[in-house]
């Protein structure tokens, strides 16, 4: 396979690709050169086929070119007579331009470089013959390639040297390039290219300081492979380079430190280690003036680095140090800012990798189709697991596949387990317990909830969870603890033990989570091993189905004396609780069957009690508990629909969090809640529909931070003492009967979120027009928000607000970041939102009477105004310079969105059914849409704009990537589709998908656009989306098919595509020397004065250019600010020009020209 972001056999399949014209050199010079290269261990591709087959090079040769590190071109007198050779040369020069990792070594064999450059002499004669057989466009490509290679430094056979001397020089120079700059990658490496692209961004080429780039991730995620690929890709840019693989393992060996120092010195300085008397001093001093690339693979802690003597100060300006590690804290200790955390392979990549390892093909045989998907699901996108298991299953039968997949559910693979367990073994005892608790019980649970449980177990979770996260043993998503499935299985396997005897003796396990195992232990009344008390069960989870309640005897738990974690779901226990475990810290009993808690259930150590969906009417009956639950901090009685009152809080004196969600019969909060004024920080009463009032004692809770009353539909008022809740940061009272907010609310100086969504009668107060109580007429006044100086989120949606009832001081909320006013009755919204300096999200959806708005916030990122059916014009969007998403769906009367076409930050634009906006305006929006965006534009329309030249009347489009113009580089492409549906104004549940097939390279990619789901309409609409070439690595002459899939309920009518290029303007370096007197000025390249005339090699391929003088450096820095977006139409004619400033860093590496990017949007 070719080197792409898809499957690659190695970064380079060949060290050298030989390009030559046979009759001139095959039996003499070339045969001796080839023999010398092979004898020296240089893996060389040489095409032995003399006869040309067709007008262009074969796919096999094209792949050989793409997968070769060095292109060695022997330019002899008859070279240009071969169209085959010339096509090879064109492809090689493109690879050199598109991929700096490739090198081209020209050999001018008995031919003058000027003849090659100007196509004169024998080359001119050949081109004269070509004119009658080939198009001018083809001749132009060949001329450009010949001119380019002639301006590279190369090797001359006409300087009096013998062939033997020239071959020896070539061999030595190639050997000098290869050993230190190439590392073998896994045979089947998938998804490398886009990840290396991300590393390139973090390398910050062009900056002269020394920088560390961290690659951080769990074991087996591919950190080392990625570091090797980056090393291969970028090592040519540096004066010295070294890859210290398995740093952690070597460091722990007796002579490990010395070995690592010797390797570092010998790699970079190319000297025998015996030349250094003091290794520590040499490491610290010998690289200070060298620009080097050093990769340090698998570092465990900072002590290892410093012991070897590796500090930033050791390396010269412009050096880059890449560190791979499983420990993020190490990178934080080193103040590393540029950290890349590789993600698991996506489904397509994972299937590809498994198929290559298991079947040596991108597609499994038909009879095996179901198995790779199951294996991918088990491996969870972890490359190590797929490589190990895929290789193991190579040439296995269907029955062996089935057996292996079944066995993996019980016993993890030893090779995978050993790799993953390295991170576990590095933990201390408390951290190991935390990891095992999470792997057995807490995956997917709220982090704060688990933190409270673990803290009650005295496991120091604040530090412990941080360490687990730093070492990639857990992740946290939406504040929930997550763990890779293979890490989960590893943890559970550690709990079970490794010996067969231990696995069978489940009472010796410290934790039980499998229903069968739990029942086995409980029915045998076991659980505490008298001979090995440390092996006693500490945690147990038994979950029964709702329809199949589990009945057990309480005495089954009597032997579990060390039990601290107990999770039961729909379990009935019969008998006395006198001998129930008394050391519980966590009791989670969902569906608790009793109406009150057993009086003899001793829970003096309990920290967290979760009794959701219970049958409780009250926590205790008339008899009070024998003892207070002084350790209890977290109580959740949510969805206990029989519960009529809260417990007496005097028995829960240290409670911090209380959840009573959807307790539909709860009518009273016990007045003893005042005892919690020194502890309670969260109270959630949402959905308590019988709750009509709150006790005055509640307002004494000085530490209360979160109060949630949403859905308490009978709650009509909050007491004026509300202002005494001095710690309150979140107040939610959505869909309550509240009619006013107490005036004391202005004392809530810490309030950050206020939500009154759906409070339709909400007013500040009522002022009466006369004193006669019999004829009072209430005059409504708007809500006041005085004093809420820290408010960040305000929800006033569906509050029946009209123009005059908009909070008068809304514009004074300087900290407000999100404002929700949707579903109200505004007509002319006169609030000056521009006065809200922090507002980023504004929601005005479903304001069906809204006709106009006065202004928009300058820092607005998202504007939602869907279903504003009479809105005609938005304020000037150009004022919103950082706007990222605009949602105007179903604004039927909208005719103008001033400034939108000029914005370059908007990634998503929804304008479905905005039919009154002139089509010319819609075209300008699509045409001016930022090339860098990747979301989508949705507008009404029946046909793709005329200036989109790749079009097809189906859901797919095929094209050949054309030769770029103006020294441009392909950066991405934009897709258009027209679509329609039989459904109207309905959101599709199908996630849109774009599939790209590179027929030339054999790659297949599927991508989900970074946009919302498709809203379906019977009227025709146009979608436009942009995709970066970093994912697909398209190159000139690639045959490509792109297809769009919006699901079976959406019909794609037409597809279009344009290519986006970044153009470069060449800026010459300071020191330029002509190759010969006849060379064109614009093609001059740098030559080192110290290089012998007999040995000429491209300077950009040998060592970094000398530092530029300050004058030019400053000048280029100024030029770096000059860039703009150019949109080119057919034949490159400009359609529109936008000023678009971008800072571009001047490269100070092995590039022969400093470059200045200009983006072009080209249609072909």
Describe the protein's architecture and organization.
This is TIR domain-containing protein. Residues 12-178 form the TIR domain. GO terms for molecular function: ADP binding. It comes from Brassica campestris. With 1164 residues, the protein is of the alpha/beta class. The protein has 28 helices and 49 strands. The protein has a 25-stranded mixed β-sheet that branches. Helix 1 crosses helix 7, helix 3 crosses helix 6 (136-150) and helix 16 runs parallel beside helix 18. The protein is globular. The model is unreliable at 1-10, 49-55, 764-778 and 1066-1164 (pLDDT under 50).
What does the secondary structure layout of this molecule look like, with pairings?
Blueprint: E1 14-19, H1 22-39, E2 44-46, H2 59-66, E3 68-75, H3 83-98, E4 103-108, H4 113-118, H5 122-130, H6 136-150, E5 155-156, H7 163-177, H8 192-203, E6 211-216, H9 223-234, E7 240-244, H10 247-251, H11 256-269, H12 279-285, E8 292-296, H13 302-308, E9 320-325, H14 328-333, E10 338-340, H15 347-359, H16 370-379, H17 383-392, H18 398-408, H19 414-425, H20 429-442, H21 447-456, H22 461-470, E11 475-477, E12 480-482, H23 485-496, H24 500-504, E13 511-512, H25 515-523, E14 539-543, E15 550-553, E16 565-569, E17 571-574, E18 586-590, E19 608-610, E20 634-636, E21 657-659, E22 682-684, E23 706-708, E24 730-732, E25 753-755, E26 766-768, E27 778-780, E28 793-795, E29 818-820, E30 828-829, E31 841-843, E32 852-853, E33 862-864, E34 885-887, E35 908-910, H26 919-928, E36 936-940, E37 950-952, E38 956-960, E39 968-981, E40 986-987, E41 993-998, E42 1003-1007, E43 1015-1016, E44 1021-1028, H27 1029-1032, E45 1039-1045, E46 1050-1067, H28 1110-1119, E47 1124-1128, E48 1134-1139, E49 1154-1162
Parallel strand pairs: 1-2, 1-3, 3-4, 4-5, 6-9, 6-10, 7-8, 8-9, 13-14, 14-16, 15-17, 16-18, 18-19, 19-20, 20-21, 21-22, 22-23, 23-24, 24-25, 25-28, 28-29, 29-31, 30-32, 31-33, 33-34, 34-35, 35-36, 47-49
Antiparallel strand pairs: 11-12, 26-27, 36-44, 37-46, 38-45, 39-44, 39-46, 40-43, 41-42, 41-45, 46-49, 47-48
Helix pairs in contact: 1-7, 2-3, 3-6, 8-9, 11-12, 15-16, 15-17, 16-18, 20-22, 20-23
């Amino acid at each position: 396979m070719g080197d792409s972001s898809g499957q690659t056999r190695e970064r380079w399949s060949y060290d050298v690709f030989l390009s030559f014209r046979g009759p001139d050199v095959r039996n003499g010079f070339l045969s001796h050169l080839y023999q010398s290269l092979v004898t020296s261990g240089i893996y060389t591709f040489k095409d032995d086929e003399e006869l040309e087959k067709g007008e262009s090079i074969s796919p096999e040769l094209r792949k050989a070119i793409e997968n070769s590190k060095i292109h060695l071109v022997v330019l002899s007198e008859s070279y240009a007579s071969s169209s085959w050779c010339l096509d090879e040369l064109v492809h090689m020069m493109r690879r050199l331009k598109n991929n700096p990792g490739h090198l081209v070594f020209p050999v001018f064999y008995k031919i003058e470089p000027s003849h090659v450059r100007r196509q004169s002499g024998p080359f001119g004669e050949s081109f004269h013959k070509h004119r009658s057989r080939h198009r001018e466009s083809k001749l132009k490509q060949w001329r450009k390639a010949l001119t380019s290679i002639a301006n590279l430094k190369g090797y001359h056979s006409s300087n009096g040297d013998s062939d033997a001397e020239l071959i020896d020089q070539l061999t030595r120079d190639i050997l000098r390039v290869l050993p230190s700059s190439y590392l073998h990658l896994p045979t089947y490496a998938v998804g490398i290219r886009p990840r290396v692209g991300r590393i390139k961004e973090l390398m910050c080429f062009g900056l002269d300081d020394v920088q560390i780039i961290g690659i951080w991730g769990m074991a087996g995620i591919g950190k080392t492979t990625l570091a090797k690929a980056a090393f291969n890709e970028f090592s040519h840019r540096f004066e010295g380079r070294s890859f210290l693989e398995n740093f952690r393992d070597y460091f722990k060996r007796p002579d490990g430190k010395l070995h690592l120092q010797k390797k570092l010195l010998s790699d970079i300085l190319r000297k025998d280690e015996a030349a250094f008397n003091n290794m520590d001093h040499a490491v610290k001093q010998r690289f200070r003036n060298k620009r080097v690339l050093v990769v340090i693979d698998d570092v465990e802690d900072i002590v290892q680095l410093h012991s070897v003597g590796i500090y930033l100060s050791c390396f010269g300006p412009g050096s880059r140090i890449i560190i791979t590690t499983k420990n993020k804290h190490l990178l934080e200790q080193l103040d590393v800012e540029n950290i890349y955390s590789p993600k698991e392979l996506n489904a397509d990549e994972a299937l590809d990798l498994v198929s290559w390892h298991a079947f040596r093909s991108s597609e499994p045989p038909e009879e095996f189709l179901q198995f790779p998907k199951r294996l991918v699901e088990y491996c969870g996108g972890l490359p190590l697991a797929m490589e190990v298991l895929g290789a193991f299953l190579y040439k296995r039968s269907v029955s062996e596949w089935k057996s292996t997949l079944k066995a993996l559910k019980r016993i993890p693979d030893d090779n995978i387990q050993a790799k993953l367990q390295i991170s576990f073994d590095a933990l201390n005892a408390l951290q190991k317990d935390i990891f095992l608790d999470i792997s057995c019980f807490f995956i997917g649970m709220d982090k704060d909830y688990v933190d409270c449980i673990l803290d009650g177990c005295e496991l120091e979770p604040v530090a412990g969870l941080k360490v687990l996260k730093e070492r990639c043993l857990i992740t946290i998503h939406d504040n929930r603890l997550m763990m890779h499935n293979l890490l989960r299985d590893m943890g559970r396997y550690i709990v079970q033990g490794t010996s067969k005897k231990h696995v069978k003796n489940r009472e010796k396990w410290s934790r039980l989570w499998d229903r069968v195992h739990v029942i086995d232990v409980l029915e045998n009344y076991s659980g505490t091993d008298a001979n090995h008390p440390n092996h006693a069960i500490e945690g147990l989870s038994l979950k029964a189905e709702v329809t199949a309640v589990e009945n057990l005897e309480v005495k089954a738990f009597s032997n579990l004396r060390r039990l601290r974690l107990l999770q039961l779901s729909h379990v009935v226990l019969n008998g006395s609780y006198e001998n129930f475990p008394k050391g519980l810290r966590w009791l989670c009993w969902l569906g608790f069957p009793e109406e009150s808690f057993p009086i003899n259930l001793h829970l003096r150590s309990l920290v967290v009690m979760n009794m959701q969906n219970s049958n409780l009417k009250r926590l205790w009956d008339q008899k009070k508990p024998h003892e207070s639950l002084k350790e209890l901090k977290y109580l959740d009685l949510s969805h206990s629909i029989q519960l009529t009152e809260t417990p007496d809080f005097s028995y829960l004196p240290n409670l911090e969090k209380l959840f009573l969600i959807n307790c539909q019969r709860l009518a009273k909060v016990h007045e003893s809640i005042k005892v919690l004024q020194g502890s309670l920080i969260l109270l959630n009463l949402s959905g308590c529909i019988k709750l009509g009032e709150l006790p005055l004692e509640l307002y004494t809770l000085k530490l209360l931070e979160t109060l949630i009353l949403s859905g308490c539909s009978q709650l009509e008022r909050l007491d004026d003492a509300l202002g005494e809740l001095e710690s309150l940061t979140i107040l939610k009272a959505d869909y309550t009967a509240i009619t006013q907010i107490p005036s004391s609310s202005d004392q809530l100086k810490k309030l950050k979120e206020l939500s009154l969504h759906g409070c339709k009668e909400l007013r500040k107060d009522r002022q009466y027009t006369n004193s006669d109580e019999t004829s009072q007429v209430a005059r409504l006044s708007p809500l006041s928000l005085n004093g809420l100086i820290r408010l960040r989120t305000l929800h006033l949606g569906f509050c029946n607000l009209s123009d005059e009832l908009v909070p008068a001081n809304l514009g004074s909320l300087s900290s407000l970041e999100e404002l929700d006013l949707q579903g109200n009755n505004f007509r002319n919204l006169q609030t000056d939102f521009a006065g809200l300096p922090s507002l980023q999200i504004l929601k005005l959806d479903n304001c069906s009477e809204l006709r106009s708005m006065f202004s928009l916030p300058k820092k607005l990122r998202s504007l939602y105004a869907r279903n504003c059916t009479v809105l005609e014009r938005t304020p000037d969007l150009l004022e919103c310079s950082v706007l990222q998403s605009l949602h105007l769906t179903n604004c039927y009367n909208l005719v103008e969105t001033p400034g939108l076409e000029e914005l370059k930050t908007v990634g998503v634009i929804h304008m479905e059914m905005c039919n009154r906006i002139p089509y010319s305006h819609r075209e300008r929006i699509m045409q001016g849409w930022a090339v860098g965006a990747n979301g989508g534009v949705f507008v009404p329309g029946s046909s793709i704009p005329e200036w989109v030249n790749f079009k097809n009347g189906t859901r797919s489009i095929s094209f050949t990537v054309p030769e770029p113009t103006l020294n441009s580089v392909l950066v991405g492409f934009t897709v258009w589709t027209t679509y329609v549906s039989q459904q109207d104004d309905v959101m599709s549940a199908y996630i849109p998908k774009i599939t790209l097939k590179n027929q030339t390279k054999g790659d297949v990619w599927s991508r989900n656009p970074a946009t919302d789901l498709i809203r379906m309409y019977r009227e025709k609409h146009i979608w436009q989306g942009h995709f970066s070439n970093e994912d697909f690595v398209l190159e000139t002459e690639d045959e490509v098919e792109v297809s769009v899939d919006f699901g079976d309920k959406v019909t794609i009518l037409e597809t279009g595509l344009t290519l986006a290029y970044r153009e470069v303007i060449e800026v010459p370096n300071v020191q330029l020397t002509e190759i010969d007197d006849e060379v064109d000025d614009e093609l001059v390249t740098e030559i080192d004065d110290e290089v012998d005339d007999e040995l000429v090699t491209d300077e950009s391929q040998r060592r970094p250019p000398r530092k530029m003088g300050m004058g030019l450096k400053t000048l280029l820095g100024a030029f770096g600010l000059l860039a703009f977006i150019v949109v080119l139409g057919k034949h490159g004619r400009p359609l529109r020009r936008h000023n678009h400033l971008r800072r571009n860093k001047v490269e100070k590496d092995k590039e022969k020209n400093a470059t200045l990017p200009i983006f072009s949007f080209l249609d072909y």
